[in-house]
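FORM 12-B: Structure-to-Sequence Request
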C-alpha cells in the first residue's frame, strides 16, 4: 500500500518544545485508549477500520449496486457530517469532466430555494432515488429537502415511491427512524457511539461512495493503516506530532490553520476537515479556526494576506507527488509565450515547484508550515487521511481540554430560528 508521508521541517517549533508535550500527549492518549476522557461515549469511530463486518460491507455494496443498476440519479440528502465525508471522497476520486453512470447529487445541505427548485425541475424527467441521512433524524435542512423531494417521488411514482428511498439514521429513535419504519424504507444504522463528523466510514459515507462506484473496502483498509498505529512517542507517531505541533503553535498565538492543497479535487476534503476541526475544537472560547486555500488558484486572491497579513496563521500543505505519465508541457517553435524553458516538464513538476516556492515564501513571511505528501489520490490514501485527521482532532481536543465530540454551540442558531419561525 502507498503511504502518505509528512514533512515537519518548516514548523518553527523546536524539538525540545515538542518533546515537552510528551507527558500531556501520554495522558490524552491514555484517555483515548481507555475511553475515560470527555465525550468517550463517542469513540466508536476508532474501531470502524478494523471492526466493520464483511456482512455490513456486502449489504452496503448490494444496495449501491441495485441503485446504480436501476436509477439515473441518486440524491443524497444530508448536512454537516451527514454529507461532507461522502462528498469529499467522491469529488476527490471523480473525473470532473466525465459523468458517472449514476449521477450523484447532494441536497439538504442548504435552505436555498434556488438550489432546491432547480433540483426539483431537473429531476422532473429523471428516474431517481433518494438516500436520506440524518443521525438525529430531526435536522431542519435535510428534513425540509426530504419532504420536498419525497413529494416529487410520490407524484411521479405513486405507491412504489418508498422502494426508491434508503434512510440512514439512528438504530431505534428519531423522526426519520419512525418515518422509515412506517413507510417501510430500506435502512442502514449510524452507530450510537459515532458522531456525525466522524461517520464517513459508516454507511453514512460508505453507501454514497459505493453508489459512485468507488472501493469502500479499500477506503477502510487505508484507514486501518493509522488505526493500527500504537506508537505514542511524538517523534514516531505523525498523528501525535501534528497534534503537538498545532498545540505548540496555538500557544505561540497561531490561532488559524490554513489547509492549502494544490489539487482542486481536494476542495471538499478541505470542507470535511474544516467541519471536523471547527466543530470539535471551537469550544469554551478556545480552538484553532480552520480555513482552506486551493493553490495556486488562491495565491492570486488570498496569497497577499497569507504572506503579509496578521501573523496568527500557520499552514498545512497537502501535495501530490509527480504522477507517472502525467501531462507534459509541449515545445513551441516560435516560443511567443516564452515558455519553452518548461517544455518537456510535467504540469505536476511545475505544481510541485510552486509548492516549494510558496512554502518557503510563507515561512519567510512568518507563516510556519508542515506538509502532507500523497503518493497518489485513491481510496487508500484518502482512508489514511481520514483516520489521520479524526485521531488528530481527538488528541487536539484533549490537549485543549475541550470535549471534541459534542457541538453545543450549533443549537444557538436553531433556537433563534425556530423562535422566529414560531415553532411550538
Ligand atoms: O458532527 C455532527 O454531529 C454534526 O455536524 C451533524 O453531522 C450535522 O449537524 C447533521 O446532523 P444529523 O445527522 O443529525 O442530521
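FORM 12-B RESPONSE
SEQUENCE OUT:
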Amino acid at each position: 500500500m502507498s503511504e502518505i508521508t509528512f514533512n515537519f521541517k518548516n514548523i518553527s517549533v523546536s524539538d525540545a518544545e515538542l518533546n515537552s508535550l510528551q507527558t500531556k500527549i501520554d495522558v490524552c492518549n491514555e484517555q483515548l485508549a481507555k475511553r475515560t476522557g470527555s465525550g468517550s461515549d463517542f469513540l466508536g469511530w476508532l474501531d470502524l477500520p478494523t471492526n466493520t463486518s464483511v456482512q455490513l460491507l456486502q449489504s452496503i455494496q448490494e444496495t449501491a449496486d441495485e441503485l446504480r443498476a436501476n436509477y439515473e440519479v441518486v440524491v443524497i440528502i444530508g448536512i454537516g457530517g451527514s454529507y461532507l465525508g461522502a462528498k469529499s471522497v467522491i469529488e476527490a476520486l471523480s473525473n470532473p469532466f466525465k459523468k458517472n453512470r449514476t449521477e450523484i447529487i447532494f441536497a439538504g445541505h442548504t435552505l436555498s430555494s434556488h438550489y432546491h427548485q432547480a433540483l426539483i425541475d431537473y429531476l422532473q424527467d429523471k428516474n431517481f432515488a433518494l438516500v436520506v441521512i440524518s443521525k438525529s433524524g430531526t435536522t431542519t435542512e435535510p428534513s425540509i429537502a426530504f419532504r420536498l423531494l419525497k413529494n416529487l417521488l410520490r407524484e411521479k411514482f405513486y405507491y412504489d415511491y418508498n422502494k426508491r428511498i434508503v434512510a440512514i439514521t439512528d438504530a431505534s429513535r428519531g423522526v426519520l427512524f419512525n418515518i422509515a419504519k412506517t413507510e417501510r424504507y430500506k435502512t442502514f444504522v449510524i452507530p450510537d457511539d459515532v458522531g456525525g463528523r466522524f461517520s464517513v466510514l459508516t454507511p453514512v459515507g460508505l453507501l454514497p461512495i459505493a453508489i459512485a462506484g468507488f472501493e469502500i473496502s479499500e477506503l477502510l483498509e487505508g484507514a486501518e493503516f493509522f488505526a493500527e498505529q500504537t506508537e505514542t512517542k511524538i517523534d514516531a507517531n505523525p498523528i501525535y506530532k501534528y497534534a503537538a505541533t498545532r498545540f505548540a503553535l496555538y500557544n505561540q498565538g497561531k490561532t488559524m490553520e490554513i489547509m492549502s492543497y494544490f489539487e482542486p479535487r481536494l476542495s471538499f476534503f478541505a470542507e470535511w476537515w474544516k467541519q471536523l476541526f471547527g466543530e470539535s475544537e471551537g469550544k469554551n472560547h478556545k480552538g484553532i479556526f480552520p480555513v482552506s486555500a486551493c493553490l495556486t488558484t488562491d495565491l492570486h486572491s488570498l496569497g497577499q494576506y497569507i504572506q503579509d497579513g496578521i501573523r496568527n496563521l500557520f499552514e498545512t500543505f497537502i501535495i501530490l507527488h509527480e504522477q507517472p505519465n502525467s501531462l507534459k508541457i509541449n515545445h513551441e517553435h516560435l516560443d511567443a509565450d516564452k515558455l519553452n524553458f518548461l517544455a518537456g516538464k510535467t504540469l505536476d513538476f511545475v505544481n510541485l515547484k510552486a509548492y516549494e516556492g510558496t512554502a518557503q515564501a510563507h515561512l519567510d513571511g512568518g507563516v510556519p508550515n508542515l506538509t502532507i505528501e500523497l503518493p497518489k489520490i485513491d481510496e487508500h490514501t484518502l482512508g489514511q487521511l481520514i483516520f489521520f485527521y479524526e485521531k488528530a482532532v481527538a488528541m487536539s481536543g484533549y490537549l485543549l481540554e475541550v470535549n471534541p465530540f459534542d457541538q453545543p454551540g450549533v443549537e444557538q442558531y436553531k433556537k433563534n430560528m425556530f423562535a422566529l419561525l414560531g415553532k411550538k
